[in-house]
Design goal:
Number of strands of chain B: 6
Shape of chain B: globular
Order of helices and strands of chain B: EEEHEEE
Strand content of chain B: 35-45%
Helix content of chain B: under 10%
Number of helices of chain A: 3
Number of strands of chain A: 14
CATH class of the largest domain in chain A: Alpha Beta
CATH topology of the largest domain in chain A: Gyrase A, domain 2
Helix content of chain A: 10-25%
Number of domains of chain A: 2
CATH superfamily of the largest domain in chain A: Probable tRNA modification gtpase trme, domain 1
Distance between the termini of chain B: 25 Å
Shape of chain A: elongated
Oligomer: heterodimer
CATH architecture of the largest domain in chain A: 2-Layer Sandwich
Number of domains of chain B: 1
């Protein structure tokens, strides 16, 4: 079965907005991250607390992200994490986390992910979010809002100003419109 | 705009939160015989205080946790935020 990505209907490749007379590095690059596995891991309230590990990654604390080449683990709230992976690690998660103490849910098809890259990526976020993104270091994440839509911001790479914005799938198209509107001023390239 | 310090995430803008009501109201004990009047008071009657007030807030666009906020209803000054099980 072929998966239809959340932004399939609106993410059209090309250059838009104020892109003329600018080189590629000046434009905001917008990319849809698709065909990726997303799992929500929730530890039950009264379950014994211990260090949680998967693929040699310790589950992170407040606003932190732990990452290796294939997996990113984002802190979503107390006892609540989002595990994003290129490969299917459901079995690994099920083996590591007992159903008596954890709820592991595959939410790969219920999130949309937009990746922004470029020197103005943070400026785009500032237009719609009250969160002070300048305080968000590399491999930090936070839940906040963008023009009224609940989002998760994941700072992937500080040097390249690469940021991922994760939202509920049903808000994906609306969020994409909001973000591309905010990008018009700088010019953007959908890749 | 108010800035509220979530006990879990830190200081965030009010737009990330939802107000959850009076945090001083205690639910009647389970299985205890209570009158209709007492139940009515628990469900509906609220004080409309001017001054320091303890209230519940929900970090709905953040960590999705409930917590208590001690806030002045006249000046909107926030004195303290607590986790739900903590007392002033």
């Amino acid at each position: 079965m072929k998966n239809i990505s959340p932004l399939n209907n609106i993410h059209q490749l090309g250059q838009y907005g104020n892109f003329e007379n600018k080189n590629d590095n000046e434009l905001v690059k917008i990319k849809e991250i698709k065909n990726i596995f997303i799992y929500q891991v929730v530890q039950f309230k009264n379950s014994p607390k211990s260090e949680l590990v998967i693929d040699n990654l310790v589950f992170p604390d407040v606003l932190q992200v732990k990452t290796n080449k294939e997996i990113r683990i984002l802190w979503m709230g107390p006892n609540n994490w989002l595990v994003i992976s290129d490969k299917n690690i459901k079995n690994e998660l099920d083996n590591n986390f007992s159903i008596n103490d954890f709820a592991v849910t595959d939410i790969s098809h219920s999130r949309s992910i937009i990746e922004l890259e470029g020197s103005n990526a943070k400026e785009v976020i500032k237009k719609g979010s009250p969160f002070n993104i300048e305080n968000l270091a590399e491999n930090n994440c936070c839940n906040t809002i963008f023009n009224g839509i609940t989002i998760t911001i994941d700072n992937i790479e500080q040097n390249k100003n690469k940021i991922r914005i994760i939202s509920l799938r049903s808000f994906g198209e609306s969020l994409y419109h909001s973000i591309t509107d905010a990008c018009l001023e700088f010019g953007y390239k959908a890749i | 705009m108010l800035y509220i310090k979530c006990p879990y995430c830190g200081i965030r803008a009010q737009t990330e939160f939802a107000y959850g009501g009076d945090a001083t109201v205690k639910r009647p004990e389970l299985n205890k015989e209570i009158t209709d009047k007492e139940w009515d008071e628990f469900v509906y009657l609220r004080k409309s205080l001017r001054g320091k007030h303890l209230e519940f807030w929900h970090h709905i666009s953040g960590c999705r946790q409930w917590f208590k906020v001690q806030r002045d209803t006249a000046t909107h000054e926030i004195f303290k935020t607590l986790k739900p099980h903590e007392e002033l």
